[in-house]
Write a structure and sequence with these properties.
Layout (H helix, E strand, L loop, with lengths): L2 H22 L10 H10 L2 H8 L17 H14 L6 H16 L4
Helix pairs in contact: 2-5, 4-5
Amino acid sequence: MPYATRIRALLACGLLGFSLGAMAQVPAIFKDADLKLGEKLIAENKCNQCHAQKWTDDGKAIYRPKGRINTPGLLRGMVEQCSVQLNLSLFPEEVTAIAAVLNRDHYHFKQ
C-alpha cells in the first residue's frame, strides 16, 4: 500500500474514532436531539434576551453547572419550566433540543 494511502487510511480511522468518542460523551437524554432545531427555537423565543434582562453578564450568569442545575435531566426540566411559565407550548422534542444546545454550549454534561 502506498505511503499516502496509508496516511489517509490512518487519518480516516482517527477521525472516525474521534467522532465516535465525541458522540459517546453526549448524555443519553440528548442523544437524538435536533441541535439545529434547538438553536432555531432559542433564537425565535429570544431566550438569550430574556435571560440578559434577568441576570448579569448578558444572561450568561445563569449557566452555572455547579449550581442547582447539575444533571442533564435537571437542565431539561428547567427548559420545560421556562416553556410552561412563558406559555411557549413547546413539544417534548423541542424542549430536549433546546436543552441539548444549552448542554453543548454551556453545561458540558457527559452522562
